[in-house]
Amino acid sequence: MTTTAPLIVDSFASLPPEDSDSLLIGDDPNVGRIATHAQRAAQVECTVLITGETGTGKEVWARMLHRLGPRRDQAFVPVNCAALTPTLAESQLFGHEKGAFTGATGASLGVFRTAERGIVFLDEVGDMPLELQAKLLRVLQEGEVTPVGSSTPISIDVQVIAATNRNLEEEVANGRFREDLYYRLNLVELKMPPLRKRQGDIPRFVEYFSRKFAARYERPVWKPSPDTLRDFCEYSWPGNVRQLGFVLEQSYVLECEPMLPGQQRPSGESVDLPFTDLAKLREAAVDQALRATQGHKGRAAKLLGIHPNTMTRLLQQLDADQSSSDC
């Protein structure tokens, strides 16, 4: 059997943004090739695998593919595979019949039938359990799902876009990801580069986020000094574009100069805070980090520049404060 080699795309496409939240910014030399491959994949409606570190804009690209293709007027249904409930994952994806299990008081369509004629975006597909991977492979091969509690397959018409921050080749080698599913998903690969390899684009991201959050919070646009901008360009940004955006938004929320994670503000420097209640300030920062990382506590801690144990203690304290206020 002949295996089709995947198309490899090495960075973001510089496509004209269609909304204010687009992160498709930059002058990477390969952007034309990326745009060509993305357009082709969108038009032929094939499976696409978007790879890259956390925060590099994988879902942004998936939504761009949706807008580029003939399914643009149909549903785009994102699924965080890492958050699927282990005991109910099959039902959540493929649906179930009434009475299929305890608590199934009615039938459910599931993600794939809900997205009929549209796109299912499987985020963090590398975290999907092996037993569920086999069922997903059948969906991709046969174009049909079998609801839990039924023996009758149902034909579906969906395009699948998957994303992961894991190295799936290593996952396959270690027996944690099915090789046949990997090749089925990897017909076209869009490979998102980390921000540290796009230092020349950082000034444009800084300007983009500064203007965006200045408008949102009705504050002046931040214009960094040359030295500060150089420091931003030389920082490694482990959380990538998402982390950069968070740092800048946090500065607008706190009404202070943006600072790199881990930096200490010079002693004596005053900060005009919008909150007089420090507990509210702390709660706002933690909530903002959790929203930026879709609830992932470890990544939120990294964005805030604190240890995960500190994040755990903060959340426990916030829960305690909330409980006290409810009494």
UniProtKB/TrEMBL annotation:
Organism: Adhaeretor mobilis
Positions of the Sigma-54 factor interaction domain: 24-253
Protein name: Transcriptional regulatory protein QseF
Keyword Transcription attributed: yes
Transcription regulation found in the keyword field: yes
SUPFAM superfamilies reported in the protein's UniProt record: Homeodomain-like (SSF46689), P-loop containing nucleoside triphosphate hydrolases (SSF52540)
Single GO term (MF): sequence-specific DNA binding
The gene coding this protein: qseF
Keywords: ATP-binding, Nucleotide-binding, Transcription, Transcription regulation
GO terms for biological process, alphabetical: regulation of DNA-templated transcription
Lineage: superkingdom: Bacteria
